[in-house]
Amino acid sequence: MNKEVNKEPHQGAKACSPGYHRSQAAKGVIRLRESNLWKPTNYGHSRILDVIRKLSGNKRPNLLNNPTDYLVVREDWDDNSVINKHETSVYTDASVTKTGTGIGIYSEALNIQKSYRLKNGCRAIQAEICAIGEAVRLIRASGKPLGNVIIYSDSQAALKSIASKSVRSKVVMSCQEALSWIRGDGVGLRWVPGHRNVVGNTGADGLAKLGARESGAEVIDSPLPPISSLKDAIEKITLEKQKEIWQNRNDCGIARNLWPKIDNSRTGQLLKHKKNLVRIAAGVITGNCAVGVNLQKWKITNDNYCRECNEEEETIEHLLCRCPAIVNRRFQIMGQEFLDGLEDAAEMEINKIMNFARNWKCFRSEVVKKG
Ligand SMILES: [Zn+2]
């Protein structure tokens, strides 16, 4: 401010005039924008470019120039002041559902109401970008003069991707290519908030849903899914295969009873414990531990009777579910005096089984030879 006051009187007066500093700041912003040093957002001082656009009375964005051109603020939609009656509006939307992926393009002025179904599954943002690309093709095909056409999308992420200068995605490149055909023809992009009952947006939304649902909708090649979703798909297929193998095995009886299905969260709970406890739990779950039946098999003991109650064979199932000598411990830890079978234990938190198993004789480091 001091710097401004020290200037010539007329300059000082100018500096004190309303909006001067704002305009200086705005010019600074424009310089920064041109040198790609300005990071536009939709809040705070960064919104200054929106103000400039309003001052100039020109809301029509330059195609692919800068996100601030098309990411109009939500407030502008309060009174629909964004929509200019001299412009031709084309709305796009995408819908990703369990039954499929659809895109919709809607324009009352150009008489476009188009639903497409995308061939391969892809992410919502890819479908949104794809919809914009298709809109461009339809606008060109309409044969109408292209002045003042605005393509609206409710996906800020899609618009930002399209405006991005470093692009590796084929979908974005394809959309950018389509846009480049009409560059300079007065076609622009603009954001419209979804679910605000903006007629065109609602229309495009309905068409996209139709494309996702109807098997009759025209099918077009969709962008290939991104690497991350391919990885997800591979993991899913692998897991299904593992499940199938596990369920169809004839061996590993105890393990398949106590761990009937591949369960990542249960595995996570197990692996939280110290290595020694995990070893104990793995012994119980697989049946490969020093229970009576194994001790006899390994010729360490002469009989396989339960060392707690001496009534039955000492098996994992006996100890876990039925041994009468450890009823109290079972009740305290598992909340039940007896279990019906290993299937009951399979439904329990793995921590309970681990706590219960910790004190069994079969896990003591020394094995007491019987008889
Ligand atoms: Zn017993």
Automatic annotation (TrEMBL):
Q: Basic and acidic residues compositional bias: what residue ranges?
A: 1-11
Q: Which UniProt keywords apply?
A: Endonuclease, Hydrolase, Metal-binding, Nuclease
Q: Which InterPro entries match?
A: RNase_H, RNaseH-like_sf, RNaseH_domain, RNaseH_sf, RVT-Znf
Q: What is this protein called?
A: ribonuclease H
What PROSITE patterns does this protein map onto? RNASE_H_1
SUPFAM superfamilies per UniProt? Ribonuclease H-like
Where does the source fall among the domains of life? Answer: Eukaryota
The enzyme's first-digit EC class, named in words, is hydrolase
The protein's matches in Pfam families, at most eight in alphabetical order, are given as:
RNase_H, zf-RVT
Keyword hit for Protease: no
Per the record, the similarity remark reads:
Belongs to the RNase H family.
Region (Disordered): which ranges? 1-20
Keyword Nuclease recorded: yes
What is the reaction catalyzed? Endonucleolytic cleavage to 5'-phosphomonoester
The source organism is Temnothorax curvispinosus
What's an example Gene Ontology biological process for this entry?
DNA replication, removal of RNA primer
The UniProt record lists the EC number as 3.1.26.4
What positions does the domain RNase H type-1 occupy?
A: 84-213
Single GO MF descriptor: nucleic acid binding
